[in-house]
Design goal:
This protein is α/β, with parallel strands linked by helices. Helices cover 46% and strands 17% of the residues. Helix 3 packs across helix 4. The chain is globular, with a radius of gyration of 18 Å. It comes from Nonomuraea aridisoli.
Length: 127
């Protein structure tokens, strides 16, 4: 750690506000309960309602679990930005895993290094 980082860490305010935990999966489920037909995700290819999103997330989470993903594992997401990426991210969280964002636009060498460093259980991609 550089001197600058040490000084910055030491100077942190002890009175910094506490950020309450936020459960994005619970928030999406609650919104789906309240407004199932409302658009949850919209991109250039179309839209997904909250009810559809919850169903897709649950289905993909089941596939991940059946594929050996367990709580605490990492799953690589090599997907373009859009509805599929958000759905996959939520499914990974539902399966109890963490995700490794892998931008499909990155050079192959960078992606290989990221995969070597993180060793995800599996990688989801649309390729």
């Amino acid at each position: 750690m550089s001197d600058m980082r040490i000084a910055g860490a030491a100077g942190a305010s002890p009175a910094s506000p506490e950020v309450p935990p936020f459960d994005v999966l619970a928030a999406v489920a609650e919104q789906a309960r309240r407004t199932p037909g409302a658009p949850a995700l919209i991109d250039a290819t179309g839209q997904t309602s909250y009810a559809e999103l919850v169903a897709e997330v649950d289905r993909l989470a089941d596939v991940l679990t059946a594929s050996g993903v367990r709580s605490g594992d990492l799953v690589g997401l090599c997907l373009p930005r859009g509805r599929a990426a958000v759905t996959a991210l939520l499914a990974v969280l539902r399966a109890g895993a963490g995700y490794v964002p892998l931008d499909p636009g990155y050079p192959a060498a960078r992606l290989a290094l990221m995969l070597e460093d993180t060793r995800p259980r599996l990688v989801l991609t649309d390729a």
